[in-house]
Give the backbone structure.
Amino acid sequence: MLKRKEVPSFALPSGLNILEQKTYKLNNGIQVLFVEGGTQEVAKLDLVFAAGVVQSPKALVAAVTNSLIHEGTESMSAFEVAEKIDFYGAYLGQSTNYHHAQITLYALSKYLPNVLPILEDIIKKPALSQHEFDVHMAKKKQDFLVDSEKVKTLAHRKSQEILFSADHPYGKVAKLHHFDEINLQDVKDFHQRQYASNLCTIIVSGQPGDDLQEVLNKHFGGTDWANDTKDSQELPTASPNQEHFHLEHKENAMQSAIRIVRPSVTKDHEDFLPLQVLNTLFGGYFGSRLMNNLREEKGLTYGISSYMISFLKAGVFGISTEVLSEKRELAVKEVFNEMQKLRTQDIEEEELTRVKNFMLGDLMRNLDGPFAISDASRGLLGFDLDLSYFDTLEKSIKCMTVAKIKELANKYLVESDFYVVIAGK
Amino acid sequence: MIEIKKYKLDNGLRLVVHQDKTTPLAAVNVLYNVGSKDEDEQKTGFAHLFEHLMFGGSKNIPSYDNPLQNVGGDNNAWTSNDLTNYYLTLPASNLETGLWLESDRMLELNFSQESLDVQKKVVIEEFKQRYLNQPYGDIPLLLRPLVYKVHPYKWPTIGADVKHIEDATLDEVKSFFYSHYAPNNAILTVTGNIDPDDVFEKVKKWFGDIPSRDVVKRNLPLEPKQTKMRELVAERDVPSDTLQLVFHMCSRTDKEYHATDLLSDVLSNGTSARIYQRLVKEQKLFTDIHAYVSGDIEKGLFTFAGNVSDDVNIYDAEKAIWEEIKIIKETLVSDYELQKVKNKIESSMLFSEINFLNKAMTLAQFELLGKAEDINYEVDKYNKVTAEEIQACAKSLFEQSNCSKLYYLSKEKKEKGC
């Protein structure tokens, strides 16, 4: 007879058993991180430069430069570049954050010899033409205006400004007038200064072929693209706002976006990994305290989550949700109630075990396959950390106790440390 | 090449298994052959609301999520016009927990008024968050009833109206379950680090005694052929104008589907594609533009959607799209351009087959369309398409009388007199 009420027996695998990462240097000193594996003959290459917002003298310049380099080179038009990449079934992507800019290439391994010369040209000899600059800026300006209609975006921008102040790179959010204040020369200068071999790290994953090192040396290992820019990631001290409640008015908004944020620790701080367990329990997964209270019990929102972000020099602990405007006070109150519960009441062992097991499974998902591992290691760049970080995370999860959760809650989930930002009517 | 094994249980449940030993994980995907097209016109949004209720506990298991999280698993679901799809991933060694959970909610849900009341509120907030409180978010709500007059694709999955969701009753929920959720109306796929025959034994154990049910026979009204162009103008508080041109096209299972899909790729797949290069880069009429096919199981839609540049009149921008349409109707696509879009298809198929969960979902969909094995012949089907077939598609699709237009205008831009 089938026992449907009984949970089938289960076990969680121990140890991470992830693919190994190799590291070596190209002839010119560029550090290469390489994870080999996967089911398909494909490869992913990330070229990461110290070319983020922190290095950029004006707003928008870092992101615009990283986009514009894809639009043609000294020897190929933007159309030719795009057509070749498309013809070989490859994809070129880019993203920019506070400290880094990265260019990502996905390609079938057999076509790497065809697309790598294009990637090399994009990075070393981009055209950076006025026409492409104008087209790009028109699009970005429209995107910016559309984003500015979203309460979620408004609340996020405001929260960064409050935590770090507008004269700090982390708090310097883009404004409409910035679009008129940058020109092509800014982009050219920034490319010249920050896209150099001495500021570059390469991450490769998948099955790129046996001659990878040789191929990388051919395209990126020369001394032809070095300069004397220092890899400086220093920042002024942040000065958070004194006022703890902020309302961004948005006419006709049906829902209000809520951000409740505080300064927090960075990845290399000893509390960061244990705090991830508290964060998951509090608002980091579907079964979290916040989801249960605000969504599953009260139906106030489609979703609510808490999150931890670590930039290189500062961290943020935050809560994010969108709720009916009339219910926003209740929502904020409930978020702080849940903090208080964690500070004052011991959680049940059963709940802690569930969070731990969920996180161990999630760790497997996040490190499954070469591409996932390369993404994980990219997130560690700039910190003095390697993939053993995830072994430490596994240990932190397994060693978490009821008492430690309460201790962390009393340290990090203190109402007076938080800023409440609401965007809505 | 994806190797698969297929099984069928006596109660009609179809099982598709694919082993991938490079991952320590496994995925369980359950596709139910019910979507928003199966709803009553007065009770739209029901299939999606029901998806939420599937997480409220089942006959023998009070919580769906807790036991899954306990074994390191995670899950989610989505609903479309055609189907409802539930999926979970977990360490492969704990596969049985996933099958236990999925089988119990296929057996019988724990129908509770309380769960229904809360999930109605959640879905209404989802409605607002995704469709009403987002710039351009209500486009699907405007377009579908313009394009379809009779067919149930005329309402979006979230529903035509918040009121329909508010009015749902527990009796309707129960009757929906028994008329659509059944082993004989579902496809189960399991992928990852598992042994196919072992999976089959476990699936027989957990799903074998679920009775097959009388599933409502689908009898969808046919959309009459459109005979003249339709047009809708909407003014909203948005920063810029958006234009959509929508044409009726074939269904996912029709033989012209692959040629139609390639037609959209020639126009729009990748930054080197025609409309992006000419209308965004060269003529600067749009800041972004796409052409895409819906890929619906019933007859679907071919859409052009573009954001008009600030200093451009939307009617001038539209003319340029019709000009591109004229070119592709009159001139054969070159060999190089055709090869390029075929290469892109092959590449994107290969990349999509890296992830075991993706494979589980895709296999279920292919099984629903016909048979899961077809996934391995998909690239061939695209490769066989000729330039003449693409041209023929363009000619039959892009008729003025087959077109519905949405001018979604910025109030602010209008006030400025642009």
Q: What stands out?
A: Chain A touches chain B through 75 residues (CB under 8 Å).
